[in-house]
Amino acid sequence: MQTLLSEPIKHYSVLSDPTMERLMKQQRRSIDTLVKSYHTLGTAVNGSHLLVKVLNSLTLNIDSDPVTVYSQTQDSYISVANAVGITTLTNQADPVKGLFYDKSYDYLICDSRMSIAEVLTVDADNWVDLQPVQVKYQPYILPLWHMPKGGKEKAKYFSVIGIDIPGLMVMYAGWYQTNLKRELGSRETVEQFVGRYVLPGMLYSQQDISNWNRLADLYTEDEIERLDSSPLIHVTDYDDEISQRIEKMGDKIILRDMYPQDIPTNFTSVNTDKTLYEALPNIDIADTQASYPVVSLAWAPYVNLLLIMSLSNTHKGKLAILAKRMVRRVRGQKVLNKLKPLNVRELFSMYYINIRQLLL
Asked: 69 CB contacts (<8 Å, ≥6 apart)?
């Protein structure tokens, strides 16, 4: 697995914040409501969407049980990913403009997180809960209902999206078998499957990254843009309260001289049994010359933020060691030369230079 921070070390400096936990549970319930509404009201994606290409490119016995589908996908998904433009351990793919986020070069990378133990729990009812496509980094503070359906404005930012192709195919098989039971005139298309089930599942990780970006907006010089969008249905939005709470907690963390590697564990995730530590881009892919440029691109904003939050911190040594290792690898693997287009290379270079300066 491509990771930078080791497992967080629990220190006495970790805060418990019941208000934050309550807000995130309420936010999770609002997202749950939205996701369920998309299952019936969501629009189809275009037939040329990259995820549709993935689904149409894999030849499987889709009527099989989840374990068989998962095993068959494991044997063939790398070649499909290489063909459609997803970074793998053998090929660094070019980004796709505006596929998931407007004004963004979207870097797609294989992230095979689903274990066989998790596959064994999938059944005819819970396949809808799978989240095979997850946001590792996106540049915005987004309302909880923002659907990652992309846009056509000129790209100036970057995003990193992890795609678990075996997990996607297990979800697809569950949908396919359910779809066959529908009346002929009411069956859904593959494009509707992506638009109604896969993209809505991204709202959870997207919201976690929005919360990371709220921290970055407070403590770095990054210009974090807020995007507006209209909800499909009315749900209660807790964004303002969460932003206020994050500011109060961030100030407490700095004042109490927190361990930098523990900072994420102080913030509850919308996946309410987890913390923002799990939202860090720990991408499940082998460490290779092809994969590392995209992985380091995903990590750079978080490393920069954590170092800034620990500028006056007496405990930042461990994070500094890990960050220096990242700097050495970026230089040794000539990551800057491998990133394109030019404006993404410049964005990454700004993070890289700032991280080096923070380590002095």
From this structure: 60, 61, 62, 169, 170, 173
Q: What pLDDT is recorded for position 6?
A: 61
85: helix, strand or coil: coil
Residue 322 has pLDDT above 70, yes or no: yes
* Phi-psi sector, 227: left (phi>0), alpha (psi -120 to 50), beta: beta
The residues that bridge with 158 in the sheet, in sequence order, are 105
Q: Return the pLDDT at 1.
A: 53
Using CA atoms, how far apart are residues 208 and 278, in angstroms rounded to an integer? 9
| Main-chain dihedrals φ then ψ at residue 226, nearest 5 degrees | -105, 125
User: In angstroms, rounded to a whole number, what is the distance separating the alpha carbons of residues 34 and 136?
Assistant: 21
Who's near 242: CB < 8 A, 6+ residues apart? 20, 23, 24, 27, 211, 214
97 DSSP assignment = E
- Look at residues 60, 94, 17 and name the one whose alpha carbon lies nearest to residue 263: 17
Q: How far apart are the first and last CA of the chain?
A: 29
Radius of gyration of the chain (CA): 20
pLDDT band at 2 (very low <50, low <70, confident <90, very high): low
**pTM of the predicted model as reported, rounded to 2 decimal places:** 0.95
- pLDDT digits 0-9 by tens, 37-71: 999 999 999 999 999 999 999 988 899 999 999 99
